[in-house]
Specification:
Elements (H helix, E strand, L loop, with lengths): L2 H15 L12 H4 L2 H8 L5 E6 L2 E5 L8 E2 L14 E5 L5 E6 L21 E2 L8 E4 L1 H4 L5 H19 L11 E3 L4 E3 L6 E2 L4 E10 L2 E6 L11 E4 L6 H13 L3 E12 L4 E10 L13 E6 H8 L14 H10 L4
Parallel strand pairs: 1-5, 11-15
Antiparallel strand pairs: 1-2, 1-3, 2-7, 4-5, 6-7, 8-9, 9-10, 11-12, 11-13, 12-16, 14-15
Helix pairs in contact: 7-8
Length: about 325
């Protein structure tokens, strides 16, 4: 690649790789997925590591700055898995990594205390787990996990959630079976293959001069505002989706749109596509089904809010792409 182009692509990649859940550092080693002997050898490798996930929560170390825990493949906790483990890939030193869903395991205490259905700060432990570890919610810990841990956990949670919700063939309704190391399913009845899905979502930094457009959904914690976002529809470009969503939710017309960064969002299986758009007008008429409130805030007020000094607006959560895009704007990097 020419040096000039290499520099351009390197710069674009840096934006994405700074986003939480975008830092998975495993070689996915797709060539091993269809190799039954290779998968068996990987599972029995002396340095294999298995990510245990219970009801969407990966196993992490306890404490304010948790690490992902990788168990040996013969650990007794893994016997509670119902389906085959998912082959995630290889580390930089060629150590195999798997993930397994332990949601059917009844022993971990279910002490969920979700904040209005928004996040779950509880920890769930079991007697046979390594000391100082428990299952923890990724959304509640995304701001403190390392970049690589967050990305690897997002990969595992996303594929496991797909298996959980796609156990039956969409063509004939019969139970399907995981194949290719867990990266596909196949119906033994009609032979239809099924592949993991990712739902594209646009999230947009809409500005007008010195102001940015923010909104809040019904049921969000008091004072929480964020950038507007919405699912793309079939036959729609990213730019069209940005304009449609902003118009539907606020009646604001958007002109030029450009891509900024993306983020895997495994709740359950979205890809957040971060864009910047320029508003052509500023009068807001909210859709009360989608939004409880929306408003324009100045760069100065936004900076104060992100610093925790605004009495009405809470800082956007560290780790969310909304915060990443807002920080880019405040730092003139858009």
């Amino acid at each position: 690649m020419l040096p000039a182009l290499n520099n351009v692509f390197a710069g674009l990649g840096t934006m994405d790789e700074q986003v939480t859940f975008g830092g998975a550092d495993l070689d996915r080693a797709a060539h091993i997925r269809e190799d039954a002997i290779g998968l068996s050898a990987a599972w029995s490798h002396p340095k294999v590591g298995v990510m245990a996930v219970w009801r969407g929560k990966p196993l992490m170390s306890d404490g304010p700055e948790p690490d992902l825990i990788w168990l040996p493949s013969d650990h007794p906790a893994l016997s509670h898995g119902v389906e085959k483990p998912i082959f995630l890939g290889l580390t930089k030193t060629s150590e195999p990594r798997f993930a397994i869903d332990l949601s059917a395991w009844a022993e971990p205490a279910d002490e969920s205390n979700a904040m209005a259905g928004f996040l779950d700060p509880s920890r769930n432990g079991a007697a046979c787990l390594p000391s100082g570890t428990s299952f923890a919610d990724m959304r509640a810990n995304m701001g403190v996990l390392s970049h690589a841990d967050a990305g690897n956990a997002a990969m595992a949670r996303g594929i496991l959630e797909w298996h959980r919700s796609h156990r039956f063939c969409a063509r004939c309704g019969q139970p399907s079976e995981p194949i290719k190391g867990g990266w596909s399913r196949k119906c033994p009845s009609c032979g239809t293959p099924h592949f993991p899905r990712t739902d594209p979502v646009v999230i947009m930094l809409i500005t007008h001069g010195n102001d940015v457009l923010v909104g809040r959904s019904p049921g969000w914690p008091q004072g929480m505002y964020s950038l507007l976002a919405g699912f793309m529809e079939p036959g729609e470009t990213i730019e069209a989706a940005v304009r449609r969503e902003v118009m539907e939710e606020t009646a604001v017309t958007v002109g030029p749109v450009r891509y900024l960064a993306s983020q895997p969002w495994p709740f359950p299986a979205s890809l957040m596509i971060g864009c910047a758009g320029e508003a052509l007008d500023t009068e807001i008429t909210i859709d009360p089904v989608e939004l409880e409130d929306a408003m324009w805030i100045s760069r100065e007020r936004c900076m104060s809010a992100m610093s925790g000094h605004d009495p009405e607006i809470r800082p956007a959560r560290p780790g969310a792409i909304a915060r990443h895009l807002i920080d880019m704007w405040l730092q003139d990097r858009t």
